Fold:
Amino acid sequence: MANTSCQAIQFDFTRRFLPPVFILVFIIGLLANGWGLKSLLQKWKKLGIVNVFVLNLGLADILYLLTLPFLLVYYYMESKWIFGDTFCKITRFCFNLNLYGSIGFLTCISVYRYLAIVHPMRVMGRITVTHSVGISAAVWFLVSVQSLPDMFYSKTVGNNTEKCFDTTSNIYVDDYLKYSLGWTFTGFCIPLLITLGCYGHVIVVLCRTNATDKELKQRCLKLLFIVILLFSVCYIPYHVLKILNLWSRVLQKQKICREWSNGVYVAHQISRGLVCLNSALNPLVYLHGIEDINAKLRQLLQQARKAVTRLTPSQVPLVELSNM
Structure:
């Protein structure tokens, strides 16, 4: 249906929805990444060569989390950007580095897990920390090259109110849609297929090999669950809805209205909040890799139990944490 007037889009939904999400992600993300990186560095030698990718994953999260206070100011000021065009582009660039850097490093971790479990004899002694550092540098370089064109699109529009678009203004939305399609394919679809292929093969091998350590199977299954959770909740909805929202904007620019335009916009804003959660969920990857993390958690709970027992000596003793 083509009309000259389109249904109004609920732009105020973004200002109501995203700030609380940003606050939650900022607090949980800083605490989880700080604790995770500290634990990682303490067990650096024990974790093996994969820890280089995990460390870069944490650094990508911290880089993005530091930009959230500026976005909070932006949305609390009713979408008025006061920090200038250059810093707007830097902020959006940091988001893209975090997003596609996280996807890239998760893919690297998946490939390394695959090689270590499926082809252990072929890679034993052949892959070193130096290789991991070189591959990490290559990931940062490729992600930067893919994200760099985004900075050349207009991000701010001055008309009494300054905007800081996460994509671009309507003037360039046609070209941006084409760029985003290619970007999504190379930066998301290909890594997703590689990750699913690696973990799928790993699970098949572990299930067929009866001699494999049960603990190893459980750890691999947990890591697979975490990766699927990240892709299903954070990455897939964001990329699908981003493309649909850009397409809707192109149609509106051509005065072609669709009843689903407002629904797609709202869903896209929700997906923007979900994709931010990757900075709070990524620490699960390296906290999962630390063998004594459960022991540490039990120790913290035991300390809390003793503190409560001292405050309430007349009450019935609490159930031992070891039975939890």
Notes: The longest strand covers residues 158-159.
